[in-house]
Amino acid sequence: MGFPDGRSDFELWQIDVFAQAPLTGNPAAVVFGAERADTALMQAIARETNLSETVFLLPPRQGGDAFMRTFTTRREINFAVHPALAAAHAFCEATNPGCTAVRFEHSRGDLRIWRDGPNAPWFATVPQPKFETTVFSPADLAGLFGLSVDDLAPGSPQIVATGVPWLLIELATESAISRAHPDMTAIADLTRSISAVGITLFRPNPRPGISAELRTFAPAEGIYEDPVCGSCAGSVAAALRRRDPAFAAQALHHLEQGHTIHRPGTIMVRLEDTDIHVGGPTLTVMRGHFNREIALCPA
């Protein structure tokens, strides 16, 4: 994708998402100028960046601002919140720094990302939630994280998808979220067996002004602990809105994640009618160019 001044460099930006300061939140890579790259090369670049997601912004096909392809280190995916916010940030900074909305095309349709003003946080509307109740032994679930049954909140865990399915496990004790030591092999086996991307631990209302604190694990996807997860926040918000009238009545929520791995981030969730909007602050932390041989040659 070219730039306004005519450049067409094969260029990579690294954006921190849900970040109040540089080198916090969840980093994502955004690649411009990869029109000649095939899928194998894009996947190889995603492995090279070794981030949760890498986004390639390509020329639009049906009148949007760009066509977006998103890769984890293992496969191409259709939707994830944090790389979409990173892509909007990078696209506007590269092409029109004052813009307040972008429309990305992708394999399943269009995605609109917006903000309230030039320096405001970016937001995306997540897909309508889908809920599935599961039956697991509390002792088995607690054992996945080296916790006791008393650390888990009563009730059955749910698989909730707002675009991506997560197994949600609510915690009851204050220290459980920091004490959790995941068994990555067991978590990967379990999530594959139930077709979930990973497991999100959450504790509602850990302190005033914060609606929930999260930790997310997706080892089957090569993401051992995701620093700050937008789709997880959407799923947790959907679950809390469904059961808690006080949560549902509040229009704006702040969720926290990443403190235990030194990547603190704040996720903003807006509730509007039946929609859930997930967003947060974004920062450019790096820009660079690929070696020309990589840029011009398929993998």
Structure in a nutshell:
The chain has eight helices and 18 strands. With 299 residues, the protein is α+β, with helices and mostly antiparallel strands.
Topology:
Layout: E1 11-17, E2 26-32, H1 39-49, E3 54-58, E4 66-71, E5 76-77, H2 81-95, E6 101-106, E7 109-114, E8 122-125, E9 130-133, H3 138-143, E10 158-161, E11 165-170, H4 176-179, H5 184-193, E12 198-207, E13 210-218, E14 223-226, H6 230-243, H7 245-249, E15 252-257, E16 265-272, E17 275-280, E18 282-289, H8 292-296
Parallel strand pairs: 2-3, 4-6, 11-12, 13-15
Antiparallel strand pairs: 1-2, 1-18, 3-4, 4-5, 6-7, 7-8, 8-17, 9-10, 10-11, 12-13, 13-14, 15-16, 16-17
Walk me through the structure.
The chain folds into 2 domains: 11-115 and 282-289, Diaminopimelate Epimerase, Chain A, domain 1 (Roll); 130-273, Diaminopimelate Epimerase, Chain A, domain 1. It is built from 8 helices and 18 strands. The chain is an alpha+beta fold. The protein has an 18-stranded mixed β-sheet that branches.
Query: Counting H and I runs of at least 4 residues, what is the number of helices?
Result: 8
Q: What is the CATH class designation of the largest domain?
A: Alpha Beta
CATH homologous superfamily placement of the largest domain: Diaminopimelate Epimerase, Chain A, domain 1
What name does CATH use for the topology of the largest domain?
Diaminopimelate Epimerase, Chain A, domain 1
The secondary structure category is: alpha+beta
Q: Give the N-terminus to C-terminus distance in angstroms.
A: 19 Å
Rounded to an integer in angstroms, the radius of gyration calculated over CA atoms is 19 Å
Number of beta-strand segments: 18
The major sheet is characterized as: 18 strands, mixed
The average pLDDT score comes to 93
GO molecular function: isomerase activity
GO cellular component, one term: cytoplasm
Active site: 53
Protein name: Phenazine biosynthesis protein PhzF family
